[in-house]
Amino acid sequence: MYTCVLSATIQGLEAVPVKVEVDVSNGLPGFSMVGSLTSQVREAEDRVRTAIHNAEIAMPPKRVTVNLSPGDIQKNGTGFDLPIAAGMLEAMGYLPQDGLKGVLVSGEVGLDGGVRSVKGILAMVLKAKECGCRACIVPKANLKEARMIDNIPIAGISSLEELIKTVKSKTWTCEKLQVDQINQSQDEGPDFSDIRGQIPGKRAALLAASGFHNLLLIGPPGSGKTMIAGRIPGLLPKLTLEESLELTRIYSVAGMLPEEQPWILKRPFRSPHHTISPQALAGGGRIPKPGEITLAHRGVLFLDEFPEMSRTSLELLRQPLEDGKIWISRINGKCCFPTEILLVGAMNPCPCGYYPDRNRCSCSVTQVNRYLNKISQPLLDRLDICAQTSISTYGEFRTDVSETEWTTEKMRQKAQMAHQIQQERYKEETFRFNGEMSPEKISKYCTTRPDAEKLLKDAFIRLGLSGRGCNRILRVARTVADLEGSAEIKEEHMAEAIGYRSMDKQYWR
Ligand SMILES: [Zn+2]
Questions:
Q1: pLDDT digit string (tens) for 62-114?
Q2: Ligand 1: distance of its center to the CA of 460 in Å?
Q3: Interatomic CA distance for residues 272 and 263, integer angstroms
Q4: pTM attached to this predicted model
Q5: Cα-to-centroid distance, 225 and ligand 1 (Å)
Q6: How many Å lie between the centroid of ligand 1 and the Cα of residue 366?
């Protein structure tokens, strides 16, 4: 007796359909599995056989052969347990013949006959819908996640018994999840008003969030760099449903969705430790998994102690920052992960942290230079804004912050205005924010007044700028002008943008 059940395996962020063929025949009792399987998939044999036994479903002593097709794709994960079990149950007459035709099945089976969650369900349901499947059967624990995809009936099951009941009665339902409602109830995170003083740092954060510019914060320990970075997601626009789906899919494949609310509705904020390995940062492994840079997609990647990171990790950031994606090559092929991030780097200006305050800093010039030069010029060129933070004075520390205009709410209103202007201006373009503007587009969108142009020319000579450096200034000046609602870049906008550039020239000479 031969049966075939549809399932899927994950490659990168994509689900690839896999046919699970099960043949149950007379002959020497046994179990064999073929079809380019990882050891995780192979273990299905023991789980499925014991689960069927413990669910008190009588299994006659027969020869079982399982083939996962196509054979040239490597299968991984534990999601094949359930389709294998379903195929065996159908072949032995416990499920109606062809009852699973056009139904995608995925789930891990426990020894007790229970069905457990698997990674990447969202991508699989999406693929099922694309392929025109009539329904999906997923673990109950993954049901909420699967329901993000509408217009395809889905059943969530928690045991093999339920599988039999569901297939017999065809009780898959098509309920659309009300993600919009959940979106409104989310908490806002920490507030900028918690930070005393630090106006230049907050201003830089506002600019970074308004135009999606990568930001580098330099300052002594305790000057609020981490606090500023952590509050930037609160200034970014809310995720659209499409973006939310994209992020949920990434976290689903990584197996990192929260259990209660398995959706990503807020922009991510990732802050890996500086000792992070290049692989954990970029993604990879034998079966490629998204790294921190992809987990921060559409949100903020905060790297504290920036120069303390390994050279490989730092240099690895360059290409994804430029392209918005990262390619991972493995023996079994290549896969691509998205990396559209807002990078926020934070660093001390020298090993002790207090340079250029010579009263407190005792580092030699060589030490300072060696420390700073860990950040290479090409990487520095990808950080549009370089801002200095300083330790708050007593006066700043004791001020009443309720009066300040530097609260997240007020800053968000300004950022929102700038986002709207950019959305309108770039509606015909492939990029959406000033920070993502390619050099070819700069002359089209960054129109300057003559006095602003002169300022840039002077800075070009005075600071010894490169063409790339000039483009950085123009992009930031565009955002400063957008925050003012100005169509043209005026002198004062240019002056502020040049200020962020001369900041890094002050350190990196
Ligand atoms: Zn020092």
A1: 999 999 999 888 898 899 999 999 999 999 999 998 889 999 999 999 999 99
A2: 30
A3: 21
A4: 0.91
A5: 17
A6: 11
Q: Give the Å distance between the CA of 307 and the centre of ligand 1.
A: 14
Q: Which residues contact 177 (CB under 8 A, 6 or more apart)?
A: 144, 147, 148, 150, 263
What does the block give as tokens for 48?
Answer: 């499925």
* CA 355 / ligand 1 centre spacing (Å): 5
Give the distance (Å) from ligand 1 centre to CA of residue 78. Answer: 52
| pLDDT per position as a tens digit, 252-270 | 999 999 888 888 988 999 9
Cα(350) to centroid(ligand 1), Å: 5
Ligand 1 centre to CA of 507 (Å) is 13
Angle subtended at Cα 423 by Cα 422 and Cα 429, rounded to the nearest 5 degrees: 95
Measure 505 CA to ligand 1 centroid, in angstroms.
18
As residues whose CB is below 5 A from the ion ligand 1, the structure lists 350, 352, 355, 361, 363
Based on its alpha-carbon atoms, the radius of gyration of the chain, rounded to whole angstroms, reads: 28
Q: Rounded CA gap, 508 and 365, in Å?
A: 12
Tell me the pLDDT tens digit for each residue of 195-217.
888 889 999 999 999 999 999 99
Domains of the chain, with CATH numbers?
Answer: 2-169 (3.30.230.10), 192-507 (3.40.50.300)
For ligand 1, the distance from its centroid to the CA atom of residue 501, given in whole angstroms, is 22
Report the SS3 class of residue 330: strand
Per-residue model confidence as pLDDT tens digits over 112-124: 999 999 999 999 9
Residues 6+ apart with CB under 8 A from 342: 208, 209, 212, 213, 214, 215, 232, 236, 299, 300, 301, 435
